[in-house]
Structures are given as C-alpha cells and as structure tokens.
Amino acid sequence: MTTATAELLTVPEVMARLRLGRSTVYDLIRSRRLVSITVGRSRRVPADALRDFIAREIEEAA
User: Fold this and answer.
1) pLDDT (tens digit, 9 = 90+) per residue, 4-30?
2) DSSP 19-50
3) d(CA 34, CA 54)
C-alpha cells in the first residue's frame, strides 16, 4: 500500500480541499457520492476517494 493510498482525510480537511461546508460534505458521504470509512467514532475519507469524486464531477460537468 502506497502512502497516497493509505492517506485518510478528516472531514475538515475535505471541506478545505473542496471549499464546501460541513453539511455538504456529510450530504455527499450520506448519498454515497463520496466514499468514506469510520475509524472508531471518526469519519475519514481516503485521499484516492476524494480524487475519484473530483474526477467524476469534472466528467459530469463536461
């Protein structure tokens, strides 16, 4: 497993990268448009999942 694959982002980090609010990020997670995992009581988004989400959004917009 590479470092990029193993990188898990917190919701605030995802918020900052996408420049979206907390509710919007959780809505994306809840609707399964953005993949996430739960570690204990914390929600984490794999960096690869965020890149995939952005790529899908760009494709849909084109």
Assistant:
1) 556 999 999 999 999 999 999 999 999
2) T--HHHHHHHHHTTSS--EEETTEEEEEHHHH
3) 9
